Each structure stands twice: as structure tokens, then as C-alpha cells.
Amino acid sequence: MHRKAKAIKAVVILCLSIWLSAVVGFAAGNDDWTEAKKTISATDGAWEDWCKQWELWKDSPLQMALTPGMNESEINFSWYSTKEDKKSRIRIGDNEQLRDGSTLIVTTKKATKGYYYNQAVATNLDINKTYYYSYTIDGRWTKTYKIQTKNPANFQFVFVGDPQIGSSYDNIPDGESGKQGQDRAVCNDSFNWNSTLQAAYNHVKSLSFIVTAGDQIQSRNLKDSEANYKTFDKNEIEYAGYLSPVLLRSIPVATTIGNHDSLSGNYSYHFNNPNSKTGYGATYAGADYYFTYGDTIFLMLNTNNTNVEEHEKFIREAVSSNKNVTWGIVAMHQDIFGSGEHSEDENIIALRTALLPILRKYDINLVLTGHDHTYARAFIADDDTKYDAEAVETGSFANSTSVVNQGRVRNQGFECSRKMISALTMNARKVLAFTKSYSLMERGSEHMIQLYAKACDDTVRYSSGKGILFITANSSSGSKYYKLLENQQDYVGARSQENQSSYTIIDITKERIQLNTFFTESGKKVDKTIIITK
């Protein structure tokens, strides 16, 4: 290229950069995000208080992380201590003073520079009971924290998408150093992460646990992870932010390994996952693991390892060891039936093709994913063959260019429409037969008809015997939002990108699984009420 041409190109790039900075006001960020201090949650001094606390937390990732145990009678613990504290202890009991409390066995090993990680398991816990625990950091006992076991016959948990604490780093104001930028980003993202957890808890205070779709944190070692994955610590400040919400001292979290978690060993230092020693699906962060809760088995796949044969072995062994479960739920990071920018990546299509027949083979009912920082719902019918390997190879899996008609009855499941309601309400007997309220029918209850119409219009029902429901969660911290694809895929039943964080409350009984997704700030619903029945 001639010098004159190079000079002109440089000027154009410089002008464009200045214009972009002026329009956006931030450096380098190509994705939307949520600025914490501008949220409703930040009012009345909450943001300022958080920033003050953050100054105390940020250099010490010593917070406790609870995870589900192998079943509802167990809870796992993991926490950091400094190198001077080699004999950490933890006690648990059913009174706040921990009289007659049990001292748990603690396993202590080296973590990242300057830290040890400590792990313990509480077993034989009674259901529907309050427990208290305290542990030591640097030889000093912490305050007493409360945890409550729940009834596994009917329980609720919250499902959230990528927190990816520190990802808003790309949107910090110009002039910040890298360390300052990470510090500010983590403070921002952890505040929003806390707001989402608090909103979910305020919605349902009886939460049994939390499930994340992966990418707890942002930073990873892409250059020499093979040599340094055990000691990489540039993301410890992000784990400090992730673990900062006080609710995480009382509610266990079942994390999925995301691509940002996968290359660092300290994921496994912070989270004491159950049934994780098989080695199937392993990366530097850890492997596939599972737990049961009542009649449900939760299979947590590390799909950053693309060896699908290992994932099938893991599922087969886990399912064969728990033959009496009613529901099978898989959580994994990559959204193989999402509607965001990643959903057309070659590795996602390959996973979609390879995993779908395995999920069908082992009667999985629900798959929870993240990765794309958008919301999507897809029900893939068992007789739908266009995602099989042969169809993918011939290209017949291609996206539909037309917008899906949301009002029709889709072959993926039963979805009520206003037209259907209109037809039903012409005959009150038929409508009220659906509600099983014949006594109200005799009194001519127009109110009951209206209630049924509204419930049906706001609800989509799927039969677990006819396919698998896939849910892709949006960001739970607002640290980054991706765009939806311009054309909605034909497998997508609903999708959303409002650049707002959200959470999904999942309610499980032996007869059905019910899902409701809400925006963190407004509390408004993202999608209809979703019900999966046996």
C-alpha cells in the first residue's frame, strides 16, 4: 500500500474511533451492558454502600461457596484461607449457638498463590429443617450463617444465565488502567449479580438452590493454560465479586462450567461439586457431575470438552444409578438450540447434532443453557429429524427466513391461542370442563371463563413424552448482552433480547415442571408460563 493511501486510511480510522467514543462514551465495548449505578436497585445509597463494601472484599476471595450435595440430605462447602491458616474448621448444628453441633471433616489443599482451599460435606440432613454453620478463616470463627433444607417432593430453584463477572471491563471509561478497569467492572457486575439473586429470592423465598449456565467469571488464560492452569489467579478478584452476594452463604449454587471458567483450575477450588470424580468431560476447571433432588436428577455437563462419547458414558452411569427418578434435567453452557450469535457457530452445530440423540436416548426432559446472553425457548419433538446428523450434512437444518407465527398450535407442543379461547367460550360447558369446575358452570360463572382464558393465553404446555424443552438464559448480571440473529430459527418458540438481566423460577413436582422467567429490574415476565407434563 502506498504511503499516501496508508495515511488516508489512518486518518479515517482515527476519525471513526473518535466518533465512536463520542457516541458511545466508553472504550472498546461492542456489546450492550447494564451500568449498575443507573439501575433501580442502586437507589437510596445502595450503590455507594456496595462500593464501600467492595473495597473490603476485592483483595480477599475468602467467601464461602455452598453447592448441592449428592442428594437433598447433603450440602457441600468450599472456601479459601490464607497460607498461614492450614487447619481450617467448620461446624454445623440446628441451633444458632451451635451447641452440640457437628464438626465436619475438612480437606485442605493448595489453591492459587497465597491461598489454600478447604472443602467439607454435611450429610444426613433432615428435610424442611433450619441449620446453622460457622467456619474459620485465618484461625478465627466467622459469624453464624443459616441454611434451610426444603421438601424435595415439591421444590423451587432459580436458573440464571452467565454472570460473567468482569465482562463489562470493555465498557469502562477511557483512561483506566487494566487493573483499575477490572476492579470497576467487577464491582459493577457483582452489584447487578446480587440484584438478580435478591430479586429471585424476593420472588420465591423457599428456593432450594441456584443453577447457573456457566461463565461465572470473565478472565481466562488463553496463552499458556496447559502450563499454568493450576496457579492462574488473575480472575480471583472476579470470583471475589461472584461470591460477594450474602445469599450465597445460605443458598447452594450448582454451577455449570463455561468457556471462560474452563481454562482455570481455581473453579474447582471454589466449588465442591458432588459426583465429580469420574473424569468424564474434564477440562482444567473440572468435569461433568450430577446430583439428585427428590425425583429429579440434575446432569451438569462440561461441554467445553467436546468428547461426546465421554458425556454419554457419564449420563448412562448417572441415570443407571438412579433409575427411580421422574425427571431428567441437563445443564450445560453452550446453547445448542439458542437464537443468538453463537447458535450458528460450527462447534455449536456439531454439539447439537451429536448431543440431541443422546439426550433423547436417556429421556431428558429439560435442558438449561447459556453462552449467548439472550433468552430463547425451543421444544424439539422426538419425531423431528432435521437436526439429525444426515440432515445436517445435507444442509436441511438451515434457519427459516420467515418469522414464526407464535399464535399457531406448534407441533412442538400445545400452545393456547385467543382464537382457540374464543371458540371454547362459545360453549361454557366445554370451557369449564377443562377447569373441572362444574359447580361454577351451573352458576354460569363468566369470571371463571375469563380466568381460564387468561391462564391459557399466558401458558404454553409441553408433553415430556413428545420431546425435549431447551431454555437459553440471558445474562444474570448485565455484564454483556449479545444480539439475536436477524432471522428467527424455525425451532425457536420464543426469544427475547431487551438488554436486561433476568432469572427463571423453576417449580418441580412429580406431575409437572413449571418455568417462569422474569426481568430483574421490572419483575415483568420475559416469556409465558411454561409447563412440562408427564
Automatic annotation (TrEMBL):
Residues 1-27 form the signal peptide. The keyword Signal applies. Residues 61-149 form the Purple acid phosphatase N-terminal domain. Keywords: Signal. SUPFAM superfamilies: Metallo-dependent phosphatases, Purple acid phosphatase, N-terminal domain. Residues 186-375 form the Calcineurin-like phosphoesterase domain. GO terms for molecular function: acid phosphatase activity; metal ion binding. InterPro entries: Calcineurin-like_PHP (IPR004843), Metallo-depent_PP-like (IPR029052), PAPs-like (IPR039331), PAPs_N (IPR015914), Purple_acid_Pase-like_N (IPR008963). This is Purple acid Phosphatase, N-terminal domain. The lineage of its organism: Bacteria, Bacillati, Bacillota, Clostridia, Lachnospirales.
